[in-house]
Design goal:
It is built from five helices and no strands. Helices cover about 70% and strands about 0% of the residues. The protein is globular, with a radius of gyration of 15 Å.
């Protein structure tokens, strides 16, 4: 299966998601949170650093539950931070078309 390259918006959302989860993790180690969420520490590290920009919903939900972060809040933050880029992309596409 060929995977399409991520857009700039998807990459930005991955970075924001990682920062949100890292901040919510607080002083707990990656190992502690990952084990409690049922994922590998390496997966959590990659998500937190933005190297996995599009983790599965189940993975996000598991980690969010462990770090007591609302999925609604994650969604709001991802959309708020990515909105200016999307607006610029939409304007650019309209100008080019």
């Amino acid at each position: 299966m060929v995977r399409l390259p991520l857009s700039a918006i998807e990459i930005r959302r991955g970075e924001i998601l990682g920062a949100l989860l890292r901040a919510a993790r607080g002083p707990r180690t990656i190992l502690q949170v990952a084990l409690e969420a049922g994922i590998s520490p390496e997966t959590l590290r990659k998500i937190e650093t933005g190297r996995v920009a599009t983790p599965s919903f189940a993975t996000i939900a598991s980690v969010a539950t462990v770090v007591d972060l609302s999925l609604d809040e994650i969604w709001i933050q991802l959309n708020r931070a990515a909105a200016p880029d999307e607006d610029l992309k939409d304007r650019t596409e309209r100008i080019i078309a």
